[in-house]
Amino acid sequence: MRVLIVDDEPAIRRTTRIAVEAAGHAGVEAPNAARALKAVEETPFDVCFLDVKLGQDDGLEVLQRLLAVAPSLAVVMFTAYANVATAVEAMRRGAFDFIPKPFTPEQIRGVLGKVTKTRALETRVEQLEAQIASEAPAIDVSSAEPGPQRALQIAFKAAESNATILILGPSGTGKSVLAREVHRRSAQRDAAFVTVHCPSLSRELLESELFGHVKGAFTGAITDTIGKVAAAEGGTLFLDEIGEIPLEIQPKLLRLLQEREYERVGETKPRHANVRLIAATNRALAEEVKAGRFREDLFYRLNVISVTLPGLRERPGDLQRFAANYLAFFAASLGKPVKAFSPVVAAAFAGYEWPGNLRELRNVIERAVILAPGDTIELNDLPEQFHGPASAVITVGSRVSLDDLEGEHIRRVLQSARNLDDAAKTLGIDPATLYRKRQKLGLI
Ligand SMILES: Nc1ncnc2c1ncn2[C@@H]1O[C@H](COP(=O)(O)OP(=O)(O)OP(=O)(O)O)[C@@H](O)[C@H]1O
C-alpha cells in the first residue's frame, strides 16, 4: 500500500515511515497540510497517518479536505492521549481509526493490517455484488399502467422517510423486490436489510428469531442471540408474509412498531430498536382481521402507508417489457442466440392468467430459452399450460362483450395459425388491420 505520513515533527514522521516500510509498504512524508493535499492530488494513496495538531492547521479540517479529494483514503489520526473527544469527532468525520501518541511501531503495523483486511473485505463484497447482479435479471421498477405506477411512486416517496410500509399483492408480483428497492432508495441504504420469513418458523422460534434470546431461555438456547430486529439496527427489517404471523406474537410486534421497544426471549430488560419496518403479505389483511386471525390495532398501525402490486394479468402494458428483458438476460447468460418471441407466443402470453406472476414469467422464459432450437421462441418451447384452450370463461354465448369475444378469437386464431398472413386470412381482415388489432390487445 502507499502510505502518506502527515506530521509537523520530523522525528515522528521518520519513525512512522520506518515502521511503514518495515511492514512492506511505501511511505511518503508531508510536513504540513498544503504538502499533504498536493501529494494526494498528484498520486493515489491507500492510507494516511495524520496528526490532529498540525502546526497552524487543524487536523480535523485537513481530514475533511483530504477525504474530499480522495474519498476512499483510510485516514488514521495521531491524537494526544487525553483527547478522546477529538478522536471521536475524527471518526464521526470519516477517519478510519486513531492512534494515541506516543505510539509504538507495533501499533502502526496493527492499524495497517486492519486497513488491508478491510480493503480485502470491501473488494470481496464488490465482487459478490457484481456476481449476484450478473446471475439475476435486472430489476425493473417502472410501469406503463397507472395502478402500479402510483403504487411505486408512493413507495419511493415513503422510502425517503422512516415510515413503515405495507406491501400487498398476490404471490410473485415482486413484493420482496420492491421492499429491497425501498431500502436501496432510503437514507438507511448502507445499513443492513434483514428479512424474516414469518411462516417458515414455529411461534417460539419466530419470536426468538425476531427478538433474540438469552442463554437457557428454552431448551436448545445454548448461547445468547441478538435476533433480527437488532441485526437490522439502523437499517430495514422486512417482515415477509406478515399475514401469517401467530396471534401471540402480534402484540409484541405492535409494541415494536409503536414504541420501538422489545425484549429478548427470557429477559425483562426492554431494548430500543432503531429500524425501518416493511411488511408484505399476499393475504387480504382486512379479511384476516374480520376472521379474528389478525389484530385490528396492528393492521391499522401497519396500514398507514400501503401499496398494492397487482397481478401480471392486470399489467398488460408491462408484460411485453418484462418478457423482453428476461429474454435478453437469459439468452446472454445461457449463451443462446434467441432474440424474439413468435407472434403466437406473444398472443399466448397476453391471453394467459399468470397465477405465479413475475416469478412464473421469469421461469417460463428461462425454460423456453434453454429449449429453443432457433433464434425465436415458439409455442413448443412453452410448458403444458400454454397448449390448452386459451380461456374457459370467454366463449360464444357466455356473458361477455363483443370486444372481449373478438379479442379472445383473435388470440386463439393467432395461436393456431402458421403465420400472421395465415391468421389474417382466417379472420377475413387484411394484415394491417390485424396489426392494429394486435397492438390494441397488447400483443405487440
Ligand atoms: N420489478 C421486478 N423486475 C424484474 N423482476 C422482478 C421484479 N419483481 C419481481 N421480479 C421477479 O419475480 C420474482 C419474485 O419476486 P418476489 O419474491 O419479490 O415476489 P413476492 O411478491 O414477494 O412473492 P411471494 O408473495 O411469493 O413472497 C423475483 O425473484 C424476480 O425474479
From TrEMBL:
GO terms for molecular function: ATP binding; sequence-specific DNA binding. Residues 141-370 form the Sigma-54 factor interaction domain. It comes from the Bacteria. The keyword Transcription applies. GO terms for biological process: phosphorelay signal transduction system; regulation of DNA-templated transcription. Keywords: ATP-binding, DNA-binding, Nucleotide-binding, Phosphoprotein, Transcription, Transcription regulation. CDD domains: AAA. The modification 4-aspartylphosphate is found at residue 51. The keyword Transcription applies. Residues 2-116 form the Response regulatory domain. This is Sigma-54 dependent transcriptional regulator. It comes from Horticoccus luteus.
